Amino acid sequence: MGLGRIVASAVLAFGVANGAWAQKAETPPPAATREYSQQFLVPGSWFHGVHGLAFNKDDQLFAGSVIGQTLYRVQIDSGEVDRVIDPPTGMADDIAFADDGTMAWTAFLIGKVYIRKPNGKTIEVANGMSGPNSLAFGKDGRLFVSEVFLGDALYEIDIKNVDKPDFKPLARNELRRIAEKLGGLNGFEVHKDDGFLYGPLWFKGEIVKVNLETGAAEVIASGFKTPAAANIDPQNRDNVYVVDTGTGGIWSVSLTSKAKKLVASMKPGLDNLAFDSRGRLFVTSMTDNGVYLVDKQTGAHRTIVEGKLAVPADLAVTSEGGKDTVHVADVFSYRTVDGANGDVTDVLRVHGETHAYPIGISVGPKNVLLSSWFSNTVEKVDRKTGKLVATLGEFAAPVDAVEFADGTIYVAELASGNLVKVSADGKERSTVMKELRGPVAMVHGAGPLIYITEISAGVVTEIDVAAGTRKVVADNLTGPEGIDLGPDGKLYVAEVGQKRVVSIDPATGAKTVIASNLDIGLAPFPGGPPALVPTGVAVGRTGIVYVSADIRNSLYKLTPP
Questions:
Q1: What is the full DSSP assignment across 96-148?
Q2: What is the location of CATH 2.120.10.30 in the chain?
Q3: Which class is domain 8-43+309-559?
Q4: Which residues touch 217 (CB under 8 Å, ≥6 apart)?
Q5: CATH number of 53-305
Q6: What is the mean pLDDT of the segment spanning 52-59?
Q7: pTM higher than 0.70
Q8: In DSSP terms, which residues pair with 285 in a beta bridge?
Q9: Of the residues 90, 334, 464, 479, which has the fewest C-beta atoms closer than 10 A?
Q10: Whole-angstrom distance, CA of residue 367 vs CA of residue 352
């Protein structure tokens, strides 16, 4: 699975955002008014990024989602999807089946590994791991797990005693460490004939053969951009198939001759693959919430299930010629949506043109800014060309950024609670405000003003970056996340804890509910920030409000009465 170069410090610092939502009463309750009409501009979809993929012995296909924290079963013929294991236990970065039908999966963000026995009993077998990512069973039922992104090692988990009443999950230091510092051993498989592990090294662009007793690794193929997974063809066990998430290429590699062959070309963002008992090849796309059947002979593919958006988070909007264009931080890509007809256009796809996972987005005078607490980066994308022009790194879990007319950028950091000023050339940084309580989203107001939502405090704060002062303009909010400034001078805020959007007069703090009973607020993982995937809000020039329906992977279009 490729959920970015997540920095451990960012994950561990989420406590800054985990305070209780403030419940104050200094501002009046929301006024009663006629609400905006609601429609879904973009149809929803299953998954929230689809990663792990595996068939059981009955040829049933299972797929996993990390952000969605759910394990699913997919009907190949109909494309229907049903939930098998719900959040948070169902967080499945990779899935594997033993010969006896036992299913295992990795819960990447919470550091756990689970198995489910054929009788339906679910057992936590390991915890405290640093990014457990990929796993596979050996032919003798042994279970092997790798750490990637937050760690870099291969382990064996002893599951012989899982059925005993006194069994307890094994800590990381209780696992047998087979190898470390391999270079990101991602989706792998143990060969049924020779017993060696075959898998990709994400950061080295190689496919390796690993001795599971000694940890020795031998390169069998190289030259990939970002290989994400490798599986053995059950019809011809001399062939290992590889998905390259950086190019969208699917390759076969002969284990004897080491010859490489490009089998199919798809879009970047592929993440995993699996074979059914007939040797048919299936792949996942985290960027498109897709599962596809690939013809190994022709390279053609058939869509089993797919989504227009993957995980829509923060939003921004530009209005030109009477037309709104909604800019979407879609976690696995940067996309735009036509405000009239809902048509979706790719701008940047993760691991293709970019390696960040955008959570926050804003459109400035020159650049679109993409913020990612996953990768600790802010990316600058040229407004005119849609090309990535610069990547600013080493932030403390940045959640949003705004650009001023002179090119200065202001970045809100979740892990530090700071608002950081970055010079136009990116060389100078300074802190202009400290102790923000769970910052989520920002919008540039008049002159030196920035408005920011603080989810842990339940407030919207106005910051004067020139004077270095701040004041609360609205409080008593339950889970404020996305924010935008409308043409009427009011602030529009997604109050996720109440499943609604409110307009706020920044002068008085008066609130008005414009839309309620919204399907927003994707659940965070345990220990993660309340706004794991922030609900975005963007207001067009005519007053139409767009809201990311993150639970549905859709967009609301709210039209004034």
A1: EE-TTS-EEEEEGGGTEEEEE-TTS-EEEEEES-S-EEEEEE-TTS-EEEEE-
A2: 8-43+309-559, 53-305
A3: mainly beta
A4: 179, 182, 208, 209, 210, 211
A5: 2.120.10.30
A6: 95
A7: yes
A8: 270, 290
A9: 464
A10: 20
